[in-house]
Design a protein that fits this description.
- It is a single chain.
- The chain has helices spanning about 10-20, 35-40, 55-65, 80-90, 115-130, 160-165, and strands at about 25-30, 45-50, 75-80, 95-100, 105, 115, 130-140, 155-160, 175-185.
- The chain is globular and about 40 Å long.
- By secondary structure, it is an alpha/beta fold.
- The strands form two sheets. A seven-stranded mixed beta sheet has the order 3-2-1-4-7-9-8, sandwiched between helices.
C-alpha cells in the first residue's frame, strides 16, 4: 500500500486551483497532504492556510511544501478540527477548497462529521469567509451525495462534476461531485 496523496481523479481540480489562485488568499480545508495547496501556490497564490485534524497528514503536507520550495511563512499549516477552526477564524479568503471526508469520527475531536448531513453548515460558513467575488470549490467523494436544495438559498452553485472528471475516469461518473460556489449576491 502506497499513499502518495495525489488522487488521480483530482488532476483537473488541482489544475483549476492552480489557474484560479494568482494573487489570491487560498484556504484548503481537510487538506490531507496539501497537494491542492501546492497547486495553488505554484499558480501564484499570495498566501494560504491549510487545515487538517491529522498530525500525520500535516507532517506529509509540510514535506510536500518543502519539496516544492514553498515559503512556510506565507503558506501556513494548521493541525486542528476543521469545524472547530471554522467557528473561530476571523480571516477572509479569495479562494477556498473544501474536500471533506464522507464520514469522520476521530478520537481527536468530540464531533462526528457526516458530509451529507453537515455540508450545508460547512458551505455556509465557507461562504461567510469569502471576500467579494471569491469562490469556493467543493468536492465530495460520497458516491450517493446530493447537494441540499438549501445551498441555493445562500450561494450561486455551478455543478462542474462532469468537467472535473478526467477522461480515464469517465466510465465512473460517480467517482466524485464538484461544485463552484459564490455568495448569492456576487
Amino acid at each position: 500500500y502506497l499513499d502518495t496523496g495525489l488522487f488521480l481523479d483530482g488532476r483537473q481540480i488541482r489544475g483549476w486551483l492552480r489557474d484560479s489562485a494568482k494573487d489570491r488568499r487560498f484556504l484548503n480545508l481537510f487538506c490531507y497532504t496539501g497537494s491542492a495547496t501546492v497547486a495553488a501556490a505554484i499558480g501564484g497564490a499570495r498566501s494560504s492556510v491549510s487545515v487538517d485534524l491529522s498530525p500525520t497528514y500535516i507532517a506529509w503536507a509540510e514535506r510536500n511544501f518543502k519539496v516544492n520550495h514553498l515559503d512556510l511563512r506565507r503558506h501556513l499549516l494548521v493541525q486542528d478540527d476543521v469545524i472547530r477552526w471554522l467557528a473561530n477564524v476571523q480571516d477572509s479568503f479569495d479562494l477556498i477548497y473544501v474536500d471533506p471526508p464522507s464520514f469522520s469520527n476521530s478520537k481527536r475531536t468530540t464531533t462526528v462529521f457526516d458530509v451529507q448531513r453537515d455540508h450545508v453548515s460547512l458551505l455556509r460558513r465557507c461562504l461567510q469567509l469569502l471576500t467579494p467575488g471569491g469562490r469556493v470549490l467543493f468536492v465530495c467523494n460520497l458516491r450517493k451525495f446530493k447537494l441540499a436544495d438549501e445551498v441555493a438559498s445562500f450561494a450561486r452553485v455551478d455543478d462542474v462534476t462532469e468537467a472535473s472528471i478526467p477522461p480515464d475516469f469517465a466510465r465512473d461518473q460517480r467517482i466524485h461531485r464538484a461544485y463552484w460556489l459564490r455568495r448569492a449576491g456576487d
